[in-house]
Design brief:
The chain is an alpha/beta fold. It is about 35% helix and about 25% strand. The protein has nine helices and eleven strands. The strands form two sheets. A six-stranded mixed β-sheet has the order 3-8-7-4-5-6. Helix 3 runs parallel beside helix 4. The longest helix has 14 residues. The two termini are about 15 Å apart. The mean pLDDT is about 95.
């Protein structure tokens, strides 16, 4: 199956090889682009070096890639998944990995340790009030630094050659310009993306676990059952 995967431009490293291991071909379509904010990256790094945080949470690989190489020291570090942890490891930063691919599990993972602690989160300029409220409810303090913005490209997704389109985030679905087809299989990388697709009138046939590998596995199970 040929799969169009929504990714930021130049951020699809490893997708093609991983798809091949599951028997599929894939290519990138980009409904969004990242606009870095270097001054905010520097502001966040300076705060880390001043010891203002007890914990850092990297909720995706991109902030890990832009913040990680600037860090000379750091507190406890949590990554949302093994790919993000791998990026950090490349800069000598060992990170704990959440048991799922959802930021909602950050607070349950840390539990009582959060009380009285301050968490630093470098992230996209996309609100996540549920995470902030959960940290506060657990007795912690959080400071987000929005180190990059996600800007819609406005480019219509090239799906004519695709058998399936895999949306990798709720925002990539909501901001995409694309033309549905009866023979185009709709795939969501996880539950949050699937909820957005259902709300938009395009329920996915396949929903993954939040990772690309888990989604490809779910896709293969779906195809075996057809």
């Amino acid at each position: 199956m040929k799969i169009a995967i929504t990714r930021l431009e130049n951020k699809a490293a490893g997708d093609h090889a991983l798809c091949a291991t599951y028997g599929h071909d894939c290519y990138t379509v980009s409904p969004l682009r990242a606009e870095l904010r270097p001054d905010r990256v520097d502001t966040f790094v300076e705060a880390v070096h001043r010891g203002e945080f007890d914990c850092l949470f990297f909720s995706s690989a991109l902030p890990a890639a832009v913040v990680g190489p600037k860090l000379e020291r750091w507190p406890r570090v949590i990554a949302i998944g093994p790919k993000t942890a791998e990026v950090l490891r490349g800069f000598g930063i060992e990170a704990e990995v959440l048991p799922t691919f959802y930021s909602r599990d950050f607070v349950p993972y840390l539990g009582d340790w959060l009380r009285g602690r301050t968490v630093g989160i470098p992230r996209a300029d996309v609100p996540n009030p549920g995470l902030l409220e959960a940290i506060a409810a657990a007795g912690g303090t959080v400071r987000e630094e929005r180190v990059y913005a996600l800007i819609p490209t406005g480019v219509k997704l090239a799906l004519d050659a695709a058998d399936a389109v895999l949306f990798t985030s709720a925002m990539s679905y909501r901001e995409a310009r694309w033309q549905p087809r009866d023979d185009l299989l709709l795939v969501a990388i996880g539950e949050i993306t699937a909820d957005a697709m259902r709300a938009g009138g395009h329920p996915p046939a396949v929903t993954g676990d939040g990772s690309l590998a888990g989604t490809l596995e779910a896709l293969n199970h779906y195809m075996e059952g057809r």
